[in-house]
Write a structure and sequence with these properties.
heterodimer, B: six-stranded parallel β-sheet, 35% helix
Chain lengths: 91, 570
């Protein structure tokens, strides 16, 4: 099953690699990404569509692991088609 | 030089001392001093030369190692013993890549570290310049955070933030990559260092504490299972008080050893692959696990779905991301371990029969030291050394059979006494870790236990021992084999011994002497007492080369993929 992860973070050098790299290393395939223009003076936002590589991978654990990255201010996850998770709806 | 003809020094204005703006390198040194750093482990080279140029005259003690990996591993051990971030310093390119293993080691074991690397000048970055490598990119998966400083004025704030990050919350390594033009640049205006908030943990909700307390009060066969989080959170006092209050049978992970003194009543020893049978059976029979600062690592749990199959779980950890990662917690308490343990005051049910059962297991399956033969029995030797050294003892290990023997047989009275590469399993950790431990606690009796495979990974650090006259005591257990690999090939690969024979080892005592380190060889059991006495009495570095039986294995053992209850013995 595909899932959507929405991440609010501080736009600093390497932040995108750090976030996407963690998602992949923790056993999730990245199927899609939404990344509006980033400005270091504003909180940045990234949306990822992901699929766990096996049944043992849990979104709640991934969310907690993303939250502990320095510069991440919020993480939400849900079904890939969850309209409440859309960045456009939240912004 | 020309002098104006009408110049009269008697009426000249007083000379104004010139104020030279500090360079980036000077600011790096000052930032380290402001952070309270006393010791830096490093190795100079091209891109980091401006920082080395600024070091003389500072309050920093620089320890020159002989390979950058050793700088990172020494900084790791320094941090574990001192409780402050260890600092290592290297140049760009190979200097930085040589640090990588040590940074990864700190990452896996949650050790606070600030690793500083030189980088080629910013105009050269991305051009494949000499000794250019993407250190920032290479280390992304193995750091808690990283910075590439592009503006000299950012140096004070980045360094302050790096130390706060490395030491706060769940500790870990932080990398700072410093392009050479940044460290050479001058900063013409004063920079205010930002005040950083200290990390603090919220207390778990009262209902979560109540739920955990209720689980303890309903338990009939509880086990206290603690790990390296105790040392990280400096929570040994609270752990010991909790254990004293509840007298729940307790087990430790490899990194948890020393959280309770080895000889504590109701302590059953290490659990897991090479744990004690008593610890593993108690876990298997338990109906409640109180997991404190541990993470259900595969080496501790064996086959995860057979681990403590009948137990509910209270998981207490400083890192919320660890809770329910591998085993669902029935009660989750994230926060400061000491505060939680102090708040968790259950009315203990009567578990006297359970305590007696566990005590019986410990007695029934106690380690034995009556090995046949007249050769040196390594477990007995290590036990004797740790007992003779007393509470001042610190062991630093390499990786392999000897590492497990240290965990099984040495006596530890504090968590900082057992320095081992638990998560990454870094062969070569032992000697550099001994260097770091001695700079952190010069009066400790620091013993490095190594094997003939591991010692060769960083044997050049004998030169560092000699250079600084560090009284490290190296016990080198030599079976002329890669012993743990050989053991697995014997047991699980149908005795297909592939590339484990180290018959052509050098004479290690001669090697040590060539580095200027005192050395002797021990191969008879009857000489063990004198060898222990000599090791502990020597005031400088010393290596004891111990020849042991190459057929000796580490027992007991949980075969890979099996339940901890399926331990096998010789």
């Amino acid at each position: 099953m595909d899932h959507r992860i929405e991440i609010d973070f501080h736009a600093s050098e390497g932040a995108i690699l750090r976030l996407v790299g963690l998602v992949e290393r923790r056993g999730f395939e990245v199927l899609g990404m939404t990344l509006p223009h980033m400005d270091a003076t504003q909180p940045a936002h990234m949306g990822l569509t992901v699929r766990p590589r096996d049944d043992s991978r849990r979104l709640a654990v991934l969310e907690a692991q993303l939250r502990r990255i320095h510069g991440v201010s919020d993480v939400r996850h849900g079904a890939a088609n969850d309209p409440d998770l859309r960045y456009e709806a939240a912004s | 030089m020309t002098v104006e003809p009408d110049f009269n020094p008697a009426i000249a204005p007083p000379a104004v001392p010139s104020v030279t703006p500090p360079t980036g390198a000077r600011m790096v040194v000052e930032a380290l001093e402001r952070a309270g750093v006393e010791v830096v482990f490093g190795y100079p080279g091209g891109a980091i030369m401006p920082v080395y140029d600024a070091l003389p005259g500072s309050s920093l003690k620089h320890v020159l190692v002989r390979h950058e990996q050793a700088a990172a591993l020494a900084a790791d051990a320094y941090a574990r013993v001192s409780g402050r971030a260890g600092v290592c310093l290297a140049t760009s390119g190979p200097g930085a890549t040589n640090l990588v293993t040590g940074i990864a080691n700190a990452f896996m074991d949650c050790v606070p570290m600030v690793a500083i690397t030189g980088q080629v000048a910013t105009p050269l970055m991305g051009t494949d310049a000499f000794q250019e490598i993407d250190t920032f990119g290479i280390t992304l998966p193995i750091v808690k955070h990283s910075f590439l400083i592009r503006r000299v004025e950012d140096i004070p704030s980045v360094f302050a933030e790096a130390f706060a990050l490395a030491e706060g919350g769940r500790p870990g390594p932080v990398l700072i990559d410093l392009p050479k033009d940044v460290t050479q640049a001058s900063c013409a205006f004063p920079i205010d260092e930002p005040a950083l908030a200290n990390h603090h943990y919220p207390m778990p909700a009262a209902q979560d504490l109540d739920a955990a307390r209720a689980l303890v009060e309903q338990a009939e066969r509880p086990v206290l299972y603690f790990g390296g989080g105790i040392a990280i959170a400096k929570a040994e006092t609270a752990l010991r008080a909790f254990h004293e209050r509840t007298r729940i049978p307790a087990v430790a992970t490899l990194k948890g050893l020393g959280g309770l003194p080895t000889d504590s009543e109701h302590f059953l020893g290490m659990l897991g692959m090479h744990g004690t049978r008593a610890a593993n059976i108690a876990i298997d029979e338990s109906d409640l696990l109180i997991c404190v600062g541990a993470r259900f690592d595969d080496r501790a749990t064996g086959k995860l779905d057979t681990f403590a199959p009948g137990a509910k779980v209270i998981h207490i950890d400083g890192d919320p991301a660890e809770i329910s990662k591998l085993r669902r917690a029935d009660a989750a308490l994230a926060g400061d371990l000491s505060a939680i343990l102090n708040a968790l005051q259950p009315a203990m049910p009567d578990i006297g029969a359970w305590r007696e059962r566990c005590a019986g297991y410990a007695k029934q399956w106690a380690m034995r030291y009556d090995a046949p033969g007249s050769g040196v029995f390594a477990p007995a030797l290590l036990k004797a050394i740790s007992e003779a050294a007393g509470d001042n003892f610190i062991a630093t290990c390499d990786v392999g059979q000897h590492q497990m023997w240290v965990a099984q047989h040495c006596r530890f009275s504090r968590p900082q006494a057992h320095l081992t590469s638990a998560g990454l399993g870094t062969m070569g950790y032992g000697v550099p870790a001994g260097v770091g431990a001695l700079f952190a606690e010069p009066d400790a009796t620091v013993v490095t236990v190594s094997g003939d495979g591991s010692i060769m990974m960083n044997i050049h650090e004998l030169a560092t021992l000699r250079r600084y006259r560090l009284p490290l005591k190296i016990v080198l257990l030599d079976n002329s084999q890669l012993g743990m690999v050989r053991q697995w090939q014997e047991l699980f690969y149908e005795e297909n011994f592939s590339e484990v024979d180290l018959y052509d080892n050098p004479d290690f005592a001669d090697v040590a002497r060539a580095f200027g380190v005192e050395a002797f060889t021990l191969d008879r059991r009857e000489d063990v007492p004198a060898a222990v006495e000599r090791l502990l009495a020597t005031t400088g570095p010393i290596l004891c080369h111990v020849r042991i039986d190459p057929r000796e294995n580490v027992w007991p053992l949980v075969p890979p993929g099996k339940s901890n209850a399926d331990m096998i013995e010789a």
